[in-house]
Amino acid sequence: MQVDLFDFALPPERIALRPAVPRDAARLLHVDRSGMADRVVAELPSLLRVGDMLVFNDTRVIPAQLDGRRGEARVGVTLHKREGPRRWQAFVRNARRLRDGDVVAFDADVSARVATRHTDGSLSLDFLGEEPVELLLERAGRMPLPPYIAGKRTPDARDADDYQTMFAAQPGAVAAPTAALHFTPALMAALDAAGIAHRTLTLHVGAGTFLPVKAEDTDDHAMHAEWGRLDPATAAELNAVRAGGGRVIAVGTTSLRLIESAADEDGTIRPFEGDTAIFITPGYRFRGIDGLLTNFHLPRSTLFMLVSALMGLDVMKAAYAHAIENGYRFYSYGDASLLLP
Fold first, then answer.
1. CA–CA gap between residue 127 and residue 106 (Å, rounded)
2. pLDDT confidence of 210, banded at 50, 70, 90?
3. InterPro entries, alphabetically (predicted)?
Protein backbone atom coordinates (compact mmCIF):
# COMPACT_ATOMS: atom_id res chain seq x y z
CA MET A 1 0.00 0.00 0.00
CA GLN A 2 1.09 3.57 -0.58
CA VAL A 3 2.39 5.12 2.63
CA ASP A 4 0.76 8.48 1.89
CA LEU A 5 -2.64 6.82 2.42
CA PHE A 6 -1.77 6.90 6.13
CA ASP A 7 -0.97 10.61 6.27
CA PHE A 8 -3.04 13.19 8.13
CA ALA A 9 -2.55 16.73 9.40
CA LEU A 10 -1.86 17.00 13.12
CA PRO A 11 -1.68 20.46 14.76
CA PRO A 12 1.49 20.58 16.90
CA GLU A 13 -0.46 21.78 19.92
CA ARG A 14 -2.14 18.35 20.05
CA ILE A 15 1.16 16.70 21.10
CA ALA A 16 1.10 16.05 24.85
CA LEU A 17 4.22 17.08 26.76
CA ARG A 18 3.09 15.72 30.15
CA PRO A 19 0.75 12.86 31.11
CA ALA A 20 -2.69 13.36 32.61
CA VAL A 21 -2.90 13.60 36.41
CA PRO A 22 -4.10 11.24 37.71
CA ARG A 23 -3.10 8.90 34.90
CA ASP A 24 -6.54 7.33 34.51
CA ALA A 25 -8.09 10.79 34.00
CA ALA A 26 -6.85 10.71 30.40
CA ARG A 27 -9.54 10.83 27.75
CA LEU A 28 -10.55 7.62 25.98
CA LEU A 29 -12.10 7.42 22.52
CA HIS A 30 -14.20 4.26 22.41
CA VAL A 31 -14.49 2.93 18.86
CA ASP A 32 -16.47 -0.17 17.89
CA ARG A 33 -18.81 -1.29 15.12
CA SER A 34 -21.58 0.97 16.48
CA GLY A 35 -19.49 4.13 16.17
CA MET A 36 -17.40 6.19 18.59
CA ALA A 37 -17.92 7.80 21.97
CA ASP A 38 -15.92 10.15 24.19
CA ARG A 39 -15.07 8.60 27.55
CA VAL A 40 -12.21 8.64 30.09
CA VAL A 41 -9.82 5.81 30.93
CA ALA A 42 -11.26 5.43 34.44
CA GLU A 43 -14.51 4.25 32.82
CA LEU A 44 -12.79 1.24 31.25
CA PRO A 45 -14.38 -1.34 33.61
CA SER A 46 -17.83 -0.40 32.25
CA LEU A 47 -16.66 -0.70 28.63
CA LEU A 48 -15.38 -4.28 28.90
CA ARG A 49 -17.14 -7.53 29.78
CA VAL A 50 -16.83 -10.08 32.56
CA GLY A 51 -14.37 -12.70 31.33
CA ASP A 52 -12.28 -10.33 29.21
CA MET A 53 -8.54 -10.24 29.78
CA LEU A 54 -6.19 -7.27 29.42
CA VAL A 55 -2.59 -8.04 28.43
CA PHE A 56 0.14 -5.63 29.52
CA ASN A 57 3.79 -5.33 28.55
CA ASP A 58 5.96 -5.48 31.69
CA THR A 59 9.13 -4.15 30.05
CA ARG A 60 11.02 -1.44 31.93
CA VAL A 61 12.61 1.55 30.20
CA ILE A 62 16.34 1.87 30.76
CA PRO A 63 18.43 5.09 30.61
CA ALA A 64 19.24 4.39 26.97
CA GLN A 65 20.44 7.78 25.71
CA LEU A 66 24.08 8.75 26.18
CA ASP A 67 26.29 11.62 25.10
CA GLY A 68 29.90 10.78 24.32
CA ARG A 69 33.12 11.78 22.61
CA ARG A 70 35.62 10.14 20.38
CA GLY A 71 38.54 12.53 20.39
CA GLU A 72 37.09 15.93 19.46
CA ALA A 73 33.98 14.45 17.86
CA ARG A 74 30.74 14.52 19.85
CA VAL A 75 28.40 11.58 19.37
CA GLY A 76 24.89 10.93 20.61
CA VAL A 77 23.88 7.33 21.26
CA THR A 78 20.41 5.82 21.59
CA LEU A 79 20.55 2.14 22.46
CA HIS A 80 18.13 0.06 20.44
CA LYS A 81 18.46 -3.69 21.08
CA ARG A 82 20.56 -5.84 23.34
CA GLU A 83 22.73 -8.32 21.43
CA GLY A 84 24.73 -9.85 24.28
CA PRO A 85 25.78 -9.37 27.92
CA ARG A 86 27.81 -6.26 27.06
CA ARG A 87 26.81 -5.54 23.46
CA TRP A 88 24.02 -3.22 22.32
CA GLN A 89 22.89 -2.19 18.87
CA ALA A 90 22.51 1.60 18.81
CA PHE A 91 21.51 4.50 16.61
CA VAL A 92 24.36 7.00 16.70
CA ARG A 93 24.31 10.68 15.84
CA ASN A 94 27.53 11.59 14.03
CA ALA A 95 28.25 7.90 13.36
CA ARG A 96 30.32 8.79 10.27
CA ARG A 97 33.07 9.95 12.65
CA LEU A 98 33.42 6.44 14.09
CA ARG A 99 35.25 3.37 12.80
CA ASP A 100 35.28 -0.25 13.98
CA GLY A 101 37.43 -0.48 17.09
CA ASP A 102 37.03 3.17 18.11
CA VAL A 103 36.30 3.79 21.79
CA VAL A 104 33.57 6.28 22.71
CA ALA A 105 33.90 7.90 26.15
CA PHE A 106 30.68 8.79 27.98
CA ASP A 107 30.15 10.54 31.30
CA ALA A 108 30.89 8.92 34.67
CA ASP A 109 33.88 6.90 33.39
CA VAL A 110 31.71 4.81 31.07
CA SER A 111 33.01 3.83 27.64
CA ALA A 112 32.19 1.49 24.77
CA ARG A 113 34.02 0.16 21.72
CA VAL A 114 32.52 0.15 18.22
CA ALA A 115 32.14 -3.50 17.21
CA THR A 116 30.08 -3.59 14.01
CA ARG A 117 28.43 -1.23 11.53
CA HIS A 118 25.05 -2.41 10.21
CA THR A 119 23.49 -1.79 6.81
CA ASP A 120 20.78 0.42 8.32
CA GLY A 121 23.44 2.80 9.68
CA SER A 122 23.25 1.60 13.26
CA LEU A 123 26.30 0.39 15.20
CA SER A 124 26.94 -2.38 17.71
CA LEU A 125 28.78 -1.17 20.83
CA ASP A 126 30.63 -3.27 23.41
CA PHE A 127 30.58 -1.64 26.84
CA LEU A 128 33.98 -1.85 28.53
CA GLY A 129 34.81 -2.82 32.11
CA GLU A 130 33.56 -5.38 34.60
CA GLU A 131 30.45 -3.67 36.01
CA PRO A 132 27.05 -4.79 34.71
CA VAL A 133 25.92 -2.63 31.80
CA GLU A 134 22.75 -1.75 33.72
CA LEU A 135 24.84 0.01 36.39
CA LEU A 136 26.85 1.85 33.75
CA LEU A 137 23.68 3.13 32.12
CA GLU A 138 22.27 4.29 35.46
CA ARG A 139 25.40 6.41 35.87
CA ALA A 140 25.83 7.76 32.36
CA GLY A 141 22.47 7.46 30.61
CA ARG A 142 19.22 9.37 30.67
CA MET A 143 15.58 8.55 30.03
CA PRO A 144 15.00 8.27 26.26
CA LEU A 145 11.99 10.51 25.76
CA PRO A 146 10.57 10.42 22.23
CA PRO A 147 11.92 13.14 19.93
CA TYR A 148 8.52 14.81 19.61
CA ILE A 149 8.65 15.50 23.37
CA ALA A 150 12.38 16.00 23.91
CA GLY A 151 12.44 18.43 20.98
CA LYS A 152 9.93 20.68 22.74
CA ARG A 153 11.21 20.61 26.33
CA THR A 154 14.14 19.33 28.36
CA PRO A 155 13.64 15.92 30.01
CA ASP A 156 13.58 16.26 33.79
CA ALA A 157 13.30 14.25 37.00
CA ARG A 158 9.54 13.84 36.61
CA ASP A 159 10.04 11.82 33.46
CA ALA A 160 11.88 9.09 35.37
CA ASP A 161 8.49 8.19 36.91
CA ASP A 162 6.11 9.50 34.27
CA TYR A 163 7.70 7.41 31.51
CA GLN A 164 7.44 4.09 33.38
CA THR A 165 4.25 2.05 33.64
CA MET A 166 3.05 0.56 36.91
CA PHE A 167 3.84 -2.88 35.41
CA ALA A 168 7.51 -2.12 34.58
CA ALA A 169 9.57 -5.05 35.87
CA GLN A 170 11.88 -6.39 33.15
CA PRO A 171 14.63 -3.87 32.19
CA GLY A 172 15.44 -3.60 28.51
CA ALA A 173 13.15 -1.17 26.68
CA VAL A 174 14.29 2.11 25.19
CA ALA A 175 10.71 3.33 24.77
CA ALA A 176 7.75 2.89 27.08
CA PRO A 177 4.70 0.79 26.19
CA THR A 178 2.73 3.99 26.55
CA ALA A 179 -0.86 2.70 26.52
CA ALA A 180 -0.18 1.19 29.96
CA LEU A 181 0.88 4.59 31.33
CA HIS A 182 -2.84 5.30 31.88
CA PHE A 183 -3.30 2.57 34.47
CA THR A 184 -3.30 3.12 38.24
CA PRO A 185 -3.72 0.79 41.22
CA ALA A 186 -7.24 2.16 41.71
CA LEU A 187 -8.18 1.39 38.12
CA MET A 188 -6.73 -2.11 38.35
CA ALA A 189 -8.77 -2.75 41.51
CA ALA A 190 -11.91 -1.60 39.69
CA LEU A 191 -11.15 -3.89 36.76
CA ASP A 192 -10.62 -6.84 39.10
CA ALA A 193 -13.92 -6.10 40.82
CA ALA A 194 -15.65 -6.03 37.43
CA GLY A 195 -14.39 -9.51 36.57
CA ILE A 196 -11.80 -8.35 34.05
CA ALA A 197 -8.53 -10.24 34.42
CA HIS A 198 -5.04 -9.23 33.36
CA ARG A 199 -1.72 -10.85 32.53
CA THR A 200 1.69 -9.62 31.39
CA LEU A 201 4.20 -10.46 28.70
CA THR A 202 7.53 -8.85 27.83
CA LEU A 203 8.52 -7.03 24.65
CA HIS A 204 11.58 -4.81 24.90
CA VAL A 205 10.59 -1.84 22.77
CA GLY A 206 13.40 -0.56 20.54
CA ALA A 207 14.20 2.92 19.28
CA GLY A 208 13.03 1.85 15.84
CA THR A 209 9.51 2.60 17.03
CA PHE A 210 10.30 6.31 16.51
CA LEU A 211 11.72 5.96 13.02
CA PRO A 212 9.59 7.37 10.19
CA VAL A 213 8.55 5.21 7.26
CA LYS A 214 10.70 6.56 4.45
CA ALA A 215 9.55 4.12 1.78
CA GLU A 216 6.73 5.10 -0.57
CA ASP A 217 5.17 1.64 -0.39
CA THR A 218 4.64 -0.40 2.78
CA ASP A 219 6.13 -3.46 1.03
CA ASP A 220 9.50 -1.67 0.96
CA HIS A 221 9.66 -0.82 4.68
CA ALA A 222 11.86 -3.02 6.92
CA MET A 223 10.90 -3.27 10.59
CA HIS A 224 13.57 -3.47 13.30
CA ALA A 225 13.46 -6.65 15.36
CA GLU A 226 12.59 -6.53 19.06
CA TRP A 227 13.00 -9.27 21.67
CA GLY A 228 9.96 -10.64 23.45
CA ARG A 229 8.74 -13.45 25.68
CA LEU A 230 5.28 -14.90 26.28
CA ASP A 231 5.54 -17.76 28.75
CA PRO A 232 3.65 -21.09 28.53
CA ALA A 233 1.36 -20.33 31.48
CA THR A 234 0.26 -16.99 30.02
CA ALA A 235 -0.29 -18.51 26.57
CA ALA A 236 -2.51 -21.20 28.12
CA GLU A 237 -4.53 -18.61 30.04
CA LEU A 238 -5.09 -16.46 26.94
CA ASN A 239 -6.31 -19.49 25.02
CA ALA A 240 -8.63 -20.42 27.90
CA VAL A 241 -10.14 -16.93 27.97
CA ARG A 242 -11.02 -17.08 24.28
CA ALA A 243 -12.29 -20.65 24.54
CA GLY A 244 -14.63 -19.49 27.31
CA GLY A 245 -16.06 -16.64 25.24
CA GLY A 246 -13.95 -13.86 26.69
CA ARG A 247 -11.88 -11.40 24.70
CA VAL A 248 -8.12 -10.85 24.75
CA ILE A 249 -7.57 -7.08 24.76
CA ALA A 250 -3.99 -6.00 24.14
CA VAL A 251 -2.90 -2.92 26.08
CA GLY A 252 -0.59 -1.25 23.60
CA THR A 253 0.65 -2.14 20.15
CA THR A 254 3.69 -3.86 21.68
CA SER A 255 1.51 -6.41 23.49
CA LEU A 256 -0.55 -6.88 20.34
CA ARG A 257 2.50 -7.46 18.13
CA LEU A 258 3.92 -10.11 20.45
CA ILE A 259 0.61 -11.95 20.80
CA GLU A 260 0.17 -11.96 17.03
CA SER A 261 3.75 -13.20 16.64
CA ALA A 262 2.93 -16.07 18.99
CA ALA A 263 -0.42 -17.02 17.42
CA ASP A 264 -0.89 -19.88 14.96
CA GLU A 265 -3.06 -19.60 11.86
CA ASP A 266 -5.95 -21.17 13.79
CA GLY A 267 -5.70 -18.56 16.55
CA THR A 268 -3.96 -20.74 19.12
CA ILE A 269 -1.45 -18.66 21.09
CA ARG A 270 1.84 -20.48 21.63
CA PRO A 271 4.68 -19.72 24.06
CA PHE A 272 7.17 -17.40 22.41
CA GLU A 273 10.71 -16.27 23.15
CA GLY A 274 12.91 -14.49 20.64
CA ASP A 275 12.91 -11.67 18.12
CA THR A 276 9.90 -10.40 16.22
CA ALA A 277 9.80 -7.93 13.36
CA ILE A 278 6.10 -8.38 12.56
CA PHE A 279 4.72 -5.52 10.41
CA ILE A 280 0.93 -5.28 10.43
CA THR A 281 -0.83 -3.37 7.65
CA PRO A 282 -4.39 -3.44 6.25
CA GLY A 283 -5.21 -6.87 4.88
CA TYR A 284 -3.63 -8.65 7.86
CA ARG A 285 -5.88 -11.25 9.53
CA PHE A 286 -5.67 -10.92 13.31
CA ARG A 287 -5.38 -14.28 15.04
CA GLY A 288 -4.64 -13.78 18.72
CA ILE A 289 -6.33 -10.58 19.91
CA ASP A 290 -9.90 -9.29 19.98
CA GLY A 291 -9.29 -5.63 20.77
CA LEU A 292 -6.69 -3.00 21.54
CA LEU A 293 -6.24 -0.11 23.93
CA THR A 294 -3.67 2.27 22.48
CA ASN A 295 -2.62 5.91 22.30
CA PHE A 296 -2.91 8.13 19.22
CA HIS A 297 -0.07 7.63 16.77
CA LEU A 298 2.02 9.60 14.29
CA PRO A 299 0.95 10.17 10.70
CA ARG A 300 2.55 7.72 8.24
CA SER A 301 3.75 5.54 11.13
CA THR A 302 3.75 1.75 11.32
CA LEU A 303 1.51 2.05 14.39
CA PHE A 304 -1.18 4.04 12.56
CA MET A 305 -0.98 1.36 9.86
CA LEU A 306 -1.52 -1.29 12.57
CA VAL A 307 -4.67 0.32 14.00
CA SER A 308 -5.95 0.85 10.46
CA ALA A 309 -5.48 -2.87 9.84
CA LEU A 310 -7.52 -3.63 12.96
CA MET A 311 -10.42 -1.22 12.43
CA GLY A 312 -10.21 -0.16 8.77
CA LEU A 313 -8.42 2.87 7.35
CA ASP A 314 -11.58 4.92 6.85
CA VAL A 315 -12.74 4.24 10.41
CA MET A 316 -9.39 5.29 11.87
CA LYS A 317 -9.13 8.42 9.75
CA ALA A 318 -12.58 9.41 10.98
CA ALA A 319 -11.63 8.60 14.58
CA TYR A 320 -8.42 10.64 14.38
CA ALA A 321 -10.25 13.56 12.76
CA HIS A 322 -12.75 13.45 15.65
CA ALA A 323 -9.92 13.32 18.18
CA ILE A 324 -8.14 16.29 16.63
CA GLU A 325 -11.31 18.35 16.38
CA ASN A 326 -12.26 17.58 19.98
CA GLY A 327 -8.93 18.34 21.61
CA TYR A 328 -7.56 14.88 22.33
CA ARG A 329 -3.87 14.79 23.22
CA PHE A 330 -1.57 12.70 21.01
CA TYR A 331 1.44 10.40 21.33
CA SER A 332 3.28 8.95 24.32
CA TYR A 333 1.91 11.20 27.06
CA GLY A 334 -1.42 11.69 25.31
CA ASP A 335 -4.91 10.23 25.51
CA ALA A 336 -6.05 6.75 24.53
CA SER A 337 -8.43 4.88 22.27
CA LEU A 338 -10.23 1.59 22.89
CA LEU A 339 -10.58 -0.22 19.57
CA LEU A 340 -13.02 -3.14 19.44
CA PRO A 341 -13.49 -4.44 15.88
1. 10
2. low
3. QueA, QueA_dom1, QueA_dom2, QueA_sf
